[in-house]
Automatic annotation (TrEMBL):
Keywords attached to this entry: Membrane, Transmembrane, Transmembrane helix
Biological classification of the source: Bacteria, Pseudomonadati, Bacteroidota, Flavobacteriia, Flavobacteriales
Native species: Aequorivita soesokkakensis
The organism's place on the tree of life at top rank: Bacteria
Pfam families associated with the record: DUF4199 (PF13858)
Signal peptide: none
InterPro entries, per the entry: DUF4199
Name of this chain's protein: DUF4199 domain-containing protein
Transmembrane segments: 7-25, 31-50, 70-89, 109-134
Length: 151
């Protein structure tokens, strides 16, 4: 299981970084609305990780699938936040200031607040998508075999 969520977590992070760098290349990285695509990237990666794990295990348990989804998304969130920290503090120091000015905030929260926002958005996206995908992948009790599990 460690191989599954670490491989997919790193893969999600690589795709997120590549998407951000592509936006930077085109000049659209200043628009936060384009980060909505990050949810699609998270969704595809988490779903593929959970699907891969469920195919490997004959007895697929809800808890283990939930763990795979949370950990793969969590690893991706942390790695992407680390990349953004390096990018904002070392490569493009004006990026965070431009984003904060675009939000018309009257107080200076700094780069750290933007990094915290990226991390929280990654974790919350991971949680919601994991809950949604587990509904698709879990075994249903609405079968003949599941009827014995009712009162």
């Amino acid at each position: 299981m460690i191989k599954v969520y670490s491989r997919y977590g790193i893969g999600i992070a690589i795709v997120l970084i590549a998407y951000f760098l592509l936006l930077k290349l085109v000049g659209l990285h200043q628009y936060p609305v384009l980060s909505a695509v990050n949810g699609l990237i998270f969704g595809a990666g988490i779903y593929m990780a959970m699907k891969k794990y469920s195919e490997r295990k004959r007895n697929f348990k809800y808890e283990k699938g939930f763990e795979v989804g949370l950990l793969s998304g969590g690893i991706a969130s942390i790695l992407f936040t680390l990349f953004m920290a390096i990018y904002m503090y070392q490569i493009d120091t004006e990026f965070a200031e431009n984003i904060m000015n675009a939000w018309n905030l009257e107080y200076d929260m700094g780069t750290l607040m933007l990094l915290l926002s990226i991390l929280i958005m990654g974790f919350s996206t991971t949680l919601v998508l994991t809950l949604a995908f587990m509904q698709l992948l879990k075994k249903s009790w609405n079968t003949q075999d599941g009827n014995r599990n009712t009162l």
